[in-house]
Amino acid sequence: MSYDLPIEQLIRPVILDCPPHTSIRQAAKRMNKARCSSILVVDQGRPVGIWTERDALNMDISDIHCIEQPISTVMSTPVRTIPGQTSIGEVTLRFKQEGVRHYLMVDNEGAPRGIITQTDIVQNQGVEFYILLREVKSVLKTLPPLLSANQPLAEATRCMRETKQDAIVVEIDGVLGILTERDIVRCISRQRIHATCGEAASKPLITVSGDASLYHTRRVFTERKIRHLGVTGSHGELLGVITYSDILDSIEHNYVRELKKTLKEQERRLDESQRYLRLAEKVFESSFEAIMITNIDGVIESVNPAFSEITGYPLQQVIGKTPQILSSGRHDAEFYRQLWHELLTEGRWQGEIWNQRRNGEIYPEWLSINTVRNERGKPASFVAMFSDITSRKAVEERLHRMAHHDTLTGLPNRALFIDYLEQAIARAHRNQRMAAVMFLDLDRFKLINDTLGHATGDQLLIATAKTLAGAVRQADTVARLGGDEFTIILENLADTQDAAVIAQKIIDSLAQPTRLEHHELFVTTSIGISVYPDDGENGETLLKHADAAMYQAKDRGRNNYQFFTADMNARAFERLVMENSLRKALERNELTLYYQPQVDIHRSRITGMEALLRWRHPDLGLISPARFIPIAEETGLIIPIGEWVLRTACAQNAAWWKAGYPALRVAVNLSLRQFRQTDLVERVRLALEETGLEPQGLELEITESMAMEHAEDTIAKLQQLKALGVSISMDDFGTGHSSLSYLKRLPIDTLKIDKSFVEDLGDDSGDAVITRAIADMAKGLRLKVISEGIETEEQLAFLKTHNNSEVQGYLFSHPLPAEEFAELLKKPFPGSRPPS
User: Fold this and answer.
1) Confidence (pLDDT) at 568
2) Among 243, 399, 565, 805, which is most exposed with the fewest C-beta within 10 angstroms?
3) Does domain 574-826 have CATH number 3.20.20.450?
C-alpha cells in the first residue's frame, strides 16, 4: 500500500462503545468477546473517554469490588482523535511521537468513524516493503520481567505497570508462557482477578529465531492471530519478546530511498553474483515504483506489486501480453517509434508518458526503460520502471498558472486575473456574499511617460503597484492588465459601501507625493467599480462594466470613483438610514455584547473572554460589526459606543465574579479614537470603580498599527493604564509593521496572533514559521501569546506542539450572549469540540 493512503481506507467503520455507567467487568467482557483492545465511552452520542487494555494495568485488581466500578472512573480522557484523511505515514509518526496506541478516527464533521491502532498500521500498511531485509533481533528491545506461576495476578499488573511493559513472561512447570494486557482484561471479564499468573497466562510462549526476517515474523503474527512473540538465540535461550510496537518503531522513511538506490545498482550488475540477484528480487517486490520486465520481443514476463497497485492489473492478467494494454491513445505512432529507436540505440529511454489503468482512467507517469544485455552483450530483455506523477503534474500546473505575472510589477497579469476572478465569483456565489471588480488607470500617465521618459514611467507603475497592494485587504487581488491599467478583486463584501471605502482609500493613498529619483510626482486615479451579482455573473461582464464605470469617473472630473450601477443615491440613502439608526441604537438599548472564551490548551480551562459588540436592529436583525463600526468610526459615534462597551463588559464581569463564577479577565477592544482621548486613563479608572470590577479582571486590546502610531505617546499612555492594574494586549499582531525597538519597550502583557497566520498551519508552511517566530519572540520578551481563529484540531495540535499557551476560536465556542456564556462557565470545560 502507498504510505500516503488515508487511514479511513484501512479500518472497518465499527466502534465498540458503552455508556459511562457500564461496569469495568461488563466493558472488559465485551472487549474480550470482540477481541478488541479498546472500548469507547459515549455519553449522549458524544465520546467522553476511552478504556484500553493498557488502562487495565492501572487498577488495583486485588480488590474484587474494583471491577464493578463504572467505566467512567477509570477511562482515559479526553479521547485523542485523528481525521480519517490522515495518511498512514503521519499516523505512524504520531504513534511514535505521542506514545499512544489508539486514536479515534473522525470525519470532516468531527463524527466518530472508527478506532485506528498500531496493529492496523502494521497489518495493512504494507510494512514488508520496509523490513524484508532486516532480522528480528535488530529491533528487539529489553527482556520482559519473569514471574513464577504461583504469583497473584495483581502482582503481575503492578510489575507490568512499573516496568512499562505490556506483557510479562511466566514460568509454568518449566515451560514459558506469556501474560499480556489482553489476558488481564479477559480475567476481569470472567471475574477471575484473584487467579495466579500461571492460571491467567497463555502458554506455551510462541517463539521465532532471532535470525528470522521481520517479514517472516509479521506473517507469524498474522497467521497465529497473536501480538507477542518470543525471540530465541542460537541455543534456544529466550532473548526477549517482540510486539507490533517494535515493528512499527523499525519503520524508517529513508529506507525506501535506499531500496531504490539499491534497485538501480542491481540493474547494472544483475549477472555479477547470486547475492545481488537475491537482493534484486527482494527489492523488486518492495519497491514503491512499478517495475515491468519484458523479453526482447516486448512480451511481459514479470511485474511487481507496485505495478498492480498503480495500473490495477494483477500479475496473472498481464503475463504474456505486451505493454500495449496500457496505451492511453494520447501518443501517436511517431512517439513510440522514437522511443524504440532510442531504446535500441542508446540502451535506455526516459520520459513522461500517459497510460491507462485497468478501470479506464488515464494518468501520467514518469517512465524509465533500460535494456538488459546477456553475457555476449546482446539485448536480452527490457526493464521498465515508472511512478504515478498525477500529484506532481497537478502541482506543476498550479505553479504554471502562478507564473503568469506581469514582469514589471510582479502583479498577476490579465490571464491570471480572470482565473482569480472566476474563483472569487464561485466563492461569492457559494457563500452568498458580494464581490467587486475595480478598474482603474492613472490620470494623465501618458504625459508623465512622454515628458520624463519610459524609465520614470516604469518606476511610477512599480510604485503604484506597491501602493495599491498596501491599500487593499490581504484577501483581495491586485493585477496589472497593461500600460497604466490596474484591476482589483474585492472579496467577501457585505455591502457595496465596503467597496466605496476601499476605493476612497486608494484615491487618498495615490494622492500622496511619489518620489522617484530626482522627481516628486503627484498622480490621481479614476476608478470604476462593478459588483457581483448585481452587475454581472461572470468575470468578463464584470470587467467590462468596471471599465465603463472607470470612463464615467473620468468624465466626471477624474480622481474619483463611480459604480457601474445607477443606484448610488439609493445606496447612499441606505447608509444614511443606518447612520441615523446607529445614533439611536444606544438609547434604544439595541446594542449587546457577546463573549468568546480564551482557553489554556495545556490545562484545558477557560482563562478569559473577549467582549464582542453586536447590534440587534429592530428591522434589519443582527447587523455585523463590519457594517456599522466603520460608520461609527467615521461619524465619531465610536466614542460613546466604546464607552458603553467598556462599562457593560466591566459590569458583566464584576457580576460574574460576585456570583461565584471563575475570576476571569474580560478583553475589551479600544478603537483608535478612544485610545487617542486625552482622558482615556481616567475613563477606564471610573469604569472599574463604578462597576466594582477588580483591575485584574480587565484587559484592554489595541491593534499593532495603533501602537506604532506616535509610539512614544503610546508607551506613556500604556504605562498609565498599566498603573491602574489592568492588562494590555496587542491585537492582530503580525499584520502591521511593528518596530522591535518599540515593541520591547511597550508595557504590554499579551500578543494576539492574527487568525490569518493560523488558517494554513503546517510544519513546512510560511504561516507556521511566522507563528513559531512570534511565539519564540514573545517568550523572550516574557509575553503571553493568544492565537485567534482556531477552527481545526490540526491547528490546535500544532499550537500545542509549539508551546502556545492560549487560543480563541470556533473550535471551542462561537461568541455567546452573556446568559449562554454563563451556562458555559457552569460546566466542566470539555476541551476542543467541532464548531456548531
Assistant:
1) 43
2) 399
3) yes
